Amino acid sequence: MRIFRAIMTAGVASVVVLAAAPALASCRIHNDTKWDFTIESGNTSNQRVGPHTTTSIAAGKIIAKSKEGKSFGGMCKDGDELEVKEEKDIPVLEIKKK
């Protein structure tokens, strides 16, 4: 009986721990420019996406800035795929075409 009670207590405790873990939503962003951006999105800051690279960032409102003074903003929802392109020396955020 004691062994059964110990197993049940451990099982309930693991379910509580798993249920308490937050689900992290993310979206993918591809930087097709020559600039390195530091991005704030959702509740997460200091995310980086380098030139001509792809990374995952937290879903939510996006604010991005480069050391060269370039910036862009927007929104992303969980599962979105975004792309930063350069148009006339200005970074533009758009939904990536599949």
Instruction: Give me the CATH fold name.
Output: Immunoglobulin-like
Total of helices: 1
Corresponding CATH architecture: Sandwich
Uncertain spans, ≥5 residues at pLDDT below 50?
A: 13-21
Question: What's the total number of strands?
Answer: 8
> Structural class, judged by helices and strands?
alpha+beta
Q: What is the general shape?
A: elongated
Any key phrases for this structure?
98 residues, alpha+beta, Immunoglobulin-like, four-stranded mixed sheet, four-stranded antiparallel sheet, 19% helix, elongated
Question: Topology of this protein?
Answer:
Elements: H1 2-20, E1 26-31, E2 37-41, E3 44-49, E4 53-58, E5 60-66, E6 71-76, E7 81-87, E8 90-95
Parallel strand pairs: 1-7
Antiparallel strand pairs: 1-4, 2-3, 2-5, 5-6, 7-8
Structure, described:
It is a single chain. This protein is of the alpha+beta class. It has one domain (24-95): Immunoglobulin-like, CATH 2.60.40. Helix content is 19%, strand content 50%. The protein contains one helix and eight strands. It has one helix at 2-20, and strands at 26-31, 37-41, 44-49, 53-58, 60-66, 71-76, 81-87, 90-95. It has a four-stranded mixed β-sheet with strand order 4-1-7-8, with no helix packed on it. The chain has a four-stranded antiparallel β-sheet with strand order 3-2-5-6, with no helix packed on it. Strand 7 and strand 8 form a beta hairpin. The longest helix is centred in the first third of the chain and has 19 residues, at 2-20. It is elongated. The N and C termini lie far apart (58 Å). 17% of the residues are buried.
